[in-house]
UniProtKB/TrEMBL annotation:
Protein name: Class F sortase
Membrane-spanning ranges: none
Residue ranges, annotated region (Disordered): 29-64
Keywords: Hydrolase
Keyword Hydrolase: yes
Pfam family, one: Sortase
InterPro entries, per database record: Sortase (IPR005754), Sortase_dom-sf (IPR023365), Sortase_F (IPR042001)
Domain of life: Bacteria
Gene Ontology MF terms: hydrolase activity
Amino acid sequence: MRGAGNTAIAAVTAVSLCCGAWLLHSGAETHAPPQPSAAQARSDGPRRTGRPVPALPPSAPDRVRIPSIHVDAPLTGLALTASGSLDVPPAEKKNLAGWYEAGATPGETGTAIVAGHVDNADGPAVFYDLGALRKGSTVEVDRRDGRVAVFTVDAVEVYRARDFPDAKVYGAADRPELRVITCGGGFTKSTGYQGNVVVFAHLTGSR
């Protein structure tokens, strides 16, 4: 059962997404996924421009689309592992993303979480190009109630695993917000990916 939509997720990380098996075989120097530039970071909190968009009622999501980086993927439900980290979609299904079922559903008030692999043993996966996303880009989420929640990207940031800001990424929000998470922050053969790329977005429409 889904928990309260605006409840913060305590001490959750997404590092279990970060194996990098493909880079071990193909070479990190030539095949590393794009990373966000400093220009895409948010330094002073979210800007609130324009008229507020009404939140949508709770409804589980079925699909996520990010047109500017050619993402169009089904969503599966995710829970927490026994260690308290966010679970991940099956690695062999490279075009599958997941959403955190105990948090907010995309479009309702609160922080909704979507996560997916950057690659698998066979090559790039669903969020390989997430680090190339830019502020102002659109993320669309198809919901089971037939509505599409439309989000606008506020920032794209990268964090080393040891510096991952749990409260900033997973904390409660007073409007409908979305986080999209994958691996990033550099790669080594001994540790795999060293951190996470995080997209911050807020609801700007629905249809």
